[in-house]
Amino acid sequence: MSSSTSSSNEPEPTDGLKAFGAVLKSFRKHAGYTQESLAPEIGYSAHFLASIEQGRRFPPPRFVDRCEASLDAFGTLRVAVVQLSRQRGLASWFRRWAQLEQEAVALCTYECRLIPGLLQTAAYARTLFVNQLPPMGDEQIEAQLEARVGRQRLLTERPNTAFSFILEEHLFLRRMGGHDVTMELIDHVLGLAKRRNIEIQIMPVVRESHAGLDGPIRLLETPENKWFAYAEGQESGQFISDPKVVSMLQMRYARMRAQALSFDDSVSLLERMRGAQ
To answer: Where is mean pLDDT largest: 12-21, 141-150, 175-184?
Structure first.
């Protein structure tokens, strides 16, 4: 996905995440568990647990709660995770949402400004970062790319999560980054659309009625079947837990799914765009 992407597709450990991982490992060993023996008790794979201990993943809330219960950690892990106030490459207002994404059973995204991060190619993402103002340094750009690649693991590592994307047609017509970047992006999106758990719909440029005129929408369902929403503007973001507001956004998203092209028609449109350019 990026020239800076490692073969493992995992971001480099940060000091905060490594510190949390070390605390978790210490409690695990003190309780007499190996990674393999603790994993089934807390409902996660040994690989997932190892990634947390190595500082390569942000520990989701349910993971922390289950480790607290199994390891009798006296609330230490909950305190430690709160101290992870800086996650490299992720904006502070986005971190809570990013944690919940890792365990979501459903993710719904409508975008009218840019291709969502989960669907971006490295070239497209780099174009966005390079064009940001004020300008970003090379290290900042690489950190952003690492974080984006880390999030994109969701699409391949969570085959039982249902992903729904509604994208405005003009996002592809804009040709952000140029012809070659756009062609690669369309190919990438078409490839993702072949996965059984990913549904992509295109909202056509000409549409007489549109339920999403108030802007982007992100919805998420947790394993406990609770729904949350997230809204983002320029240099700000809002995590939404109010059931009434979430319900309103669900209603708008459902209407847009009916207003957008069907999945098959959306794929056909992207294929025509790919062939015509």
So the answer is: 175-184
